[in-house]
Amino acid sequence: MRRLYIHPLLLRIWHWTNAVGFILLTLTGIQIRYVDLFNVVSFRTAVILHYWVGFIIIGNFFIWLLLHLFTKEARNYHAELNPVKMFKGCLEQIIYYGYGIFKGFPNPFHLTKEHKFNPLQALTYQIVMLVFVPLQCITGVLLWDIARFAKVIDVLGGVRVVDTVHVLIFTVIACYIPFHAYLATLGRTPMEHIKAMVTGYEEVEDDAPEHDEKA
Amino acid sequence: MADREIQLMAMHRPKNQAGQRQAGLVSIVAALLTVAIIALTAPASALSPDDAKCLSCHQTAGMEKPLANGESLSLHIAGDKFAGSVHGMFGCAACHSDIDVAKHPGDAKPIASKRAFSIGRAQVCATCHTDQATQWSHGVHAALVRDGNPIAPVCTSCHSPHAVMKGAAQAMETVPCKTCHSDIFDAYATSIHGTLRAAGITQAPLCYSCHGAHDIKVPTAGAGLKDTCFGCHKDAVAKHQIWLPNTQLHFTVISCPACHSPTAHRKVDLMLRNSETKEDAVRPIGVPEFQGSPDGAAGDKGLDPATLFTLMQTLNRTGVKNKTSIKGMLEVSSGVEAHKIAAASEAIKNCATCHKAGSAAFQSVTISVAGSGGVPVHYGITKDVLHSAFSIPSIGGFYAMGATRITLLDVLLVLGLLVGIGIPALHLTIRWLASRPTDKPGKPDSADQDKKEG
Fold first, then answer.
1. Is there a contact between B402 and A35 (Cβ–Cβ < 8 Å)?
2. What's the ipTM?
3. Which of A102, A158, A202 is nearest residue B396 as measured by Cβ atoms?
4. pLDDT, tens digit, for every residue of B99-122?
């Protein structure tokens, strides 16, 4: 086994900031929406905390964006423009998770410096980071100061519409995060990928190629 | 117009004036004695001999005139009060110039009713009190009069013309508003405003302070209430911003008494309004739910979410120029409760009072349109509109976190969490079952196969 440095420091800081932020946003968001069921801190504290953490997550999103606009990290997100190839890769991965993993079949994906995400991961992360997170940030900012953004909110159909979008995206993210956390435990050991997101190093087979064969 | 015809006061002789018909010395002596009594009891500077002449008859207790509708109009004037009133110095003829003394009371014209007489006399008041009359004509009282409301006040309803005293409307004891609005005045009198006013603090508002003196406005119409309160409480925004997130939003959708009358019953009023002008819309024509008398019923009666959705789609169908939207406001349920303002320390500050499911504030809902003089006219609508997915486009502009959440979104969230947690849990369970030592020999070691997940 040898170690492959694939998670730069800035990316790791971004990831764990996001992780803590998402948990706080989830908890405070649930209290704001369901204070009758979940009441840990005062309502006002929950709201203020939700605002502050929300802005940290927005700032964090831009760190992620800049990192991927100006470093080689972007190659992990390069969209597979051939739909047949993309769906074939995703399907292989789904079959592996849904069947092969139980039978002990090998993972069809092999990690390299250029591609650290399997096709399903790459597609999911692109949708999450380029659609859901920005939409959640935008609707969050609008809801942060409804009076200030009244005209924009009116154009969008009103605060109820904006809130509905915010809650729907939260529902998707709330559904996605347990999947993400669980899939992260499917390494050789449950903590392998989680440790890698702390140290930056993934362990690969000695004979595994460091770079893409095309690279 | 009949009202104009009745401007000339037609007076009948009092019933008990038989003695005055007697000729000769007795009547002359009686008249002289009456004038002398008036001259002695009234301020000499206030009443002229001509006025005394009028009062020689009109000071007679019980003097009245039967009207066409069967009512009786009192013609009795308390001379001392008139003399002491602000009108006393002008004398009778200033307002009753239409009376020809030479022919009076012989040329008395019939009067239809007390109401018609009062409305007609308002034009006489307007000859001197031009500004006040103009202001009145722009107010809600005038709008109600124009609509034929039989009790909406005109000048003489609030100002007894023969006993007008300066400052009467500025004292709690004599303010005329409480004649009709007694229940509201009683609520006011026990409020922080009324208590301070009664203690002699003149900065504390009385009726006219918020509602105007003649151009009576309904503060709840439009943004009026906020502006009215801010007229004195100029630092209200700054004080709320210290602790209240989204202060401006709260000020836009919540009326001040909703929090500052802590014992009041609250309700949501959904106001139909013109999307362009932002003014309250008038009653939609041809919509069954807005026909007949509004009863302001709230709770389980009235429009349901699907009907409201259809209504809004109809009002905003393609080709309609003036689009209609709904502005929601959290208000107190009655004018009486709006006046029960408590001290600031007693105001509602706990966010969860409103921002939770089942909050009392969201159990009553009305839908309103603009009525006479801007007074909202309320119709019933079910509280389900606050929680229905149909309402997303219908009342997109009103939403209270936690309290008016859409039930369908709650269901979706629960499903999302079940999927998000349930599938990984199921997957983990199957992996555990598949990797048990009892597995058939020859099965590959899965731990050696996993490469990269996450």
1. yes
2. 0.90
3. A158
4. 888 888 777 778 899 999 999 889
